[in-house]
Amino acid sequence: MSQWRVFITRRLPDDILAPLFEHADVDVWPERLPPPYDELRRRTAAADGLLCMLTDRIDASLIAQAPRLRVISQMAVGYDNIDVAAATARGIPVGHTPGVLTESTADLAFALILAAARRLLDGVRFIERGAWQTWEPFGLLGQDVHGKTLGIVGLGRIGAATARRAHGFGMRILYTGPREKPDVAAALGATYVSFERLLAESDVVSIHCPLTPATRHLFNADAFARMKPGAILVNTARGGIVDHDALLAALRAGHLGAAGLDVTEPEPLPSDHPLMQCERVIITPHIGSATVQTRRRMAQMAVANLLAGLRGERLPHCANPEVFEKR
Ligand SMILES: NC(=O)C1=CN([C@@H]2O[C@H](COP(=O)(O)OP(=O)(O)OC[C@H]3O[C@@H](n4cnc5c(N)ncnc54)[C@H](O)[C@@H]3O)[C@@H](O)[C@H]2O)C=CC1
Ligand SMILES: O=C(O)C(=O)CO
């Protein structure tokens, strides 16, 4: 008889789950779509460990009705879907997967910068509607990326990795955030500026901060009005950081040049949402970390965090390490 019961909210490769099968009764949600909230609650109520995804709402009430729960392990670095304070109050560690997805996500951010600046999607749509008849001297013109100024909002792991790519492309780099990062910034020649100055001087703004109460709708009508005419916004962090109505208005007014979004609110964005049809907007379905290698590493890390929590050990990657201080 296994010592623990765990609930895993999506199917993951068997070889990655193997260490769990040895030690626990493993309940894996079998569908492609996430468990509905009631099902998530019901199954978590019986679990010692929960391995969840960013699509699962892990709120205080769900945590409260799971008396055996001793670890929550999220297969993502961002954990804005989890009420970490409620978990901490119960002494439950919350695991996440920082680092292993940094380079893949920065690749996607830079892909969106290039795609938005050089109008890749507009070009593809142009061909698809049969409009390609000749080479045009002034058709489908985009913007140069080299020599332009990139503003990084949140020079953490992914922000710095995106800045490294920009450095290689000959961009000038500005960054903003709660504190200066002199070591990282020196290597990239990046300058620490206020949010307002970053908006005013950047040709491309790339968002890499977490979604928190302080960053929800950080990009609102006021922020867009402060951006340079023709500037490009790229968001690979969380959809809730951008007010999409204000973004749409800034694009329609011709104030913003283009946008590249890997994250939206809600996800998925309804197919009839005006941003989906908007020229100069490229939207990808939250695939920042979606490479074979990275998703395997994330799943392995989530399993390692889960097992540590079940054993009562310190999680290798923990969002609320203070729970261990209280023990
Ligand atoms: N599109 C995707 O598939 C992925 C999205 N993400 C998102 O990217 C975010 C960042 O991930 P990491 O770089 O690993 O995190 P990190 O913790 O290394 O970096 C976040 C940075 O944002 C800064 N920050 C916090 N509040 C801020 C504010 N109000 N204004 C400006 N900066 C602020 C922090 O000081 C930190 O430097 C995650 O929280 C997640 O939401 C992460 C991985 C993949
Ligand atoms: O890790 C995250 O936070 C993601 O958004 C997906 O990798």
TrEMBL record:
One of its GO terms (cellular component) is cytosol. CDD domains: GDH. Residues 6-320 form the D-isomer specific 2-hydroxyacid dehydrogenase catalytic domain. It catalyses: (R)-glycerate + NADP(+) = 3-hydroxypyruvate + NADPH + H(+); (R)-glycerate + NAD(+) = 3-hydroxypyruvate + NADH + H(+); glycolate + NADP(+) = glyoxylate + NADPH + H(+). It comes from the Bacteria. Keywords: Oxidoreductase. Residues 110-288 form the D-isomer specific 2-hydroxyacid dehydrogenase NAD-binding domain. Its EC number is 1.1.1.79, 1.1.1.81. The keyword Oxidoreductase applies. It holds the Pfam family 2-Hacid_dh_C. The keyword RNA-binding does not apply. GO terms for molecular function: glyoxylate reductase (NADPH) activity; hydroxypyruvate reductase [NAD(P)H] activity; NAD binding. Belongs to the D-isomer specific 2-hydroxyacid dehydrogenase family. GhrB subfamily. This is Glyoxylate/hydroxypyruvate reductase B. It comes from Ardenticatena maritima. The lineage of its organism: Bacteria, Bacillati, Chloroflexota, Ardenticatenia, Ardenticatenales.
